[in-house]
Amino acid sequence: MDKNKVGEFHFITESYLMDFRGRITIPMIGMYLLHAASSHAADRGFGYDDMTERHTAWVLSRLAIEMTSYPAMSESVTLYTWVDEVGKLFTSRCFELVNGEGKTFGYARSIWAAIDMETRRPTLLDVAGLGAYITDRPCPIEKPGKIAMVENDTAGESYRVKYSDLDVNGHLNSVKYMEHLLDLFDISMFREKEISRFEIAYQAEGKYGMELSLHNKEMAPDSYSMAICNEGKAICRAAVTWK
């Protein structure tokens, strides 16, 4: 493993990260991924402070997580992350989750863009600089794909963006999208099944006080498409597969 290209991060699953089953959740996995991505980028000159100096910021565009099992309390987790591809406007980053016994229990793929902090418009990436960290380490899950529209077929549940939803940029936190969407499922789903794949596409920024409608529709057995909308327009879409 090229240590200069692949980041390695270690976590312990604390009790406050667990759900009622004593298992870590998809949103908490998302927090691990974001922490690793931020730290890996910062160590290589592309972190939050570096981007701020250039008046730009990273935004997460798409994320797909596949899990074969979920850690319980006080278990060790090693998270590996690396840059997979770099284009003019987007870069893709992969992740591998490994338990204390050295067994992989999850992978993730993500797509990121950089935006101008004033105009909020996409900016060109440093292809040469980021490209120096590309590695061909395998990530054997499907890339994020197209997610079906469901907002016109479902009534939706209302939600207003609150203080605790906001991130450092003052917008709806990436992980909060996940939490609000998963709250649409009845607790019986979590008692009886596990999420095998969670995929989300971020399309617009949520802001404080914004009135949202959350939608969920079963497209096939154990397969759901979801959306969060503002004024009838999706600000994100998601797909969840249960097993």
Features:
243 residues; alpha+beta; Thiol Ester Dehydrase, Chain A; 2 domains; ten-stranded antiparallel beta sheet; 5 helices; 38% strand; globular
What is the terminal-to-terminal distance? 32 Å
Strand content: 35-45%
**Total helical elements:** 5
Instruction: Label the structural class.
Output: alpha+beta
Q: How many distinct domains? A: 2
Largest sheet: 10 strands, antiparallel
List low-confidence stretches: none
- CATH homology group of the largest domain: Hotdog Thioesterase
CATH-defined fold name of the largest domain: Thiol Ester Dehydrase, Chain A
Indicate the overall shape: globular
Give the second-level CATH assignment, the architecture of the largest domain: Roll
Mean pLDDT: 95
Radius of gyration (CA) equals 18 Å
Describe, in plain words, how this protein is organized in 3D.
This protein is α+β, with helices and mostly antiparallel strands and 243 residues long. It has two domains: 1-144, Hotdog Thioesterase (Thiol Ester Dehydrase, Chain A), CATH 3.10.129; 145-243, Hotdog Thioesterase (Thiol Ester Dehydrase, Chain A). The chain is built from five helices and ten strands; from the N terminus they run βααββββαβααββββ. The protein has helices at residues 26-42, 48-53, 127-131, 174-182, 187-192; strands spanning 7-12, 56-67, 76-86, 90-99, 104-116, 157-160, 195-202, 211-220, 223-230, 233-242. A ten-stranded antiparallel β-sheet has the order 1-3-4-5-2-7-10-9-8-6. Strand 4 (90-99) and strand 5 (104-116) form a beta hairpin. Helix 1 runs antiparallel to helix 4. The longest helix has 17 residues, at 26-42. It is globular, with a radius of gyration of 18 Å. 34% of the residues are buried. The model has no long low-confidence stretch (mean pLDDT 95).
